[in-house]
Amino acid sequence: MATDTGLEPELNPEPAPTPTSTSMPTSAPAPTPASTSGRPQAPRRPGRSALPYALLAPAGLILALVIGYPLVRLVIISLQDYGLRALFTGTTPWIGLANYRAVWNDDQLVPVLVRTVGFCAALVVGTLVIGMLTALMMRALGPGLRTAVTLSLIAAWAVPNVAATLVWEWLFQPTYGVVNWLLTEARVFGDFQQHNWLSQSLSAFGVVWTLVVWQSVPFVALTLYAGLTQIPDEYYEAAELDGAGYWSRFRVITVPFLRPILLLVGIMSVIWDFNVFNQIWIMTKGGPVNGTTTLGIWSFTKAFAGQSYGQGAAIAVVSVLLLLSLTVYYVRRLVRSGEEL
Question: Is the pLDDT of residue 226 over 90?
Answer without folding.
Answer: yes
